[in-house]
Amino acid sequence: MLVDRKQTVLYVEDNHLNMALMHHIFKKNLPSVLLLKAETAALGLQIARRTLPDLIILDIGLPDLNGYEAMERLQNDELTRPIPVLAISAFAQRSDIERAQNAGFSGYMTKPFQVKALTEAVEKLLAGID
């Protein structure tokens, strides 16, 4: 699936290794998508409001605000409310996945994630397919 070169994804993650891995995945599998990065939820919220990315990939276990708090702020802002948000977390219990769905996330991936599954999820969300 070809993705419009103008599409942008914001990745909010505090772990440098995960950030480097995501950069590599996008470079190799989604080269036409611009990947923006933020190491804190607060910075991610600022970047999201300023750039209005097509998709946000949000780690749940962030140190300043957890992913649920950040998601609530995204949903309460009329500018960022329409942006789909993909949750990524090491928490893999059914209750964790249900909590994310109830919080309004567009999808949920557990760490470690499969590169193909992540790539497909990003492509679908960027194409507007649930």
Mean pLDDT: 92
The CATH homologous superfamily is named Response regulator
Task: Please tell me the total number of domains.
Answer: 1
Helix-strand topology string: EHEHEHEHEH
Plain-language structure description:
With 130 residues, the chain is an alpha/beta fold. The protein has a single domain (8-126), classed as 3-Layer(aba) Sandwich (Rossmann fold), CATH 3.40.50.2300. The protein is 43% helix and 18% strand. The protein is built from five helices and five strands. The protein has helices at residues 16-29, 41-51, 67-76, 94-102, 115-126; strands at 8-12, 34-38, 55-59, 85-89, 107-110. Strands 2-1-3-4-5 form a five-stranded parallel β-sheet, with helices on both faces. Helix 2 (41-51) packs parallel to helix 3. It is globular, with a radius of gyration of 13 Å. It starts with 7 loop residues before the first strand and ends with a helix. Residues 1-5 have low confidence and may be disordered.
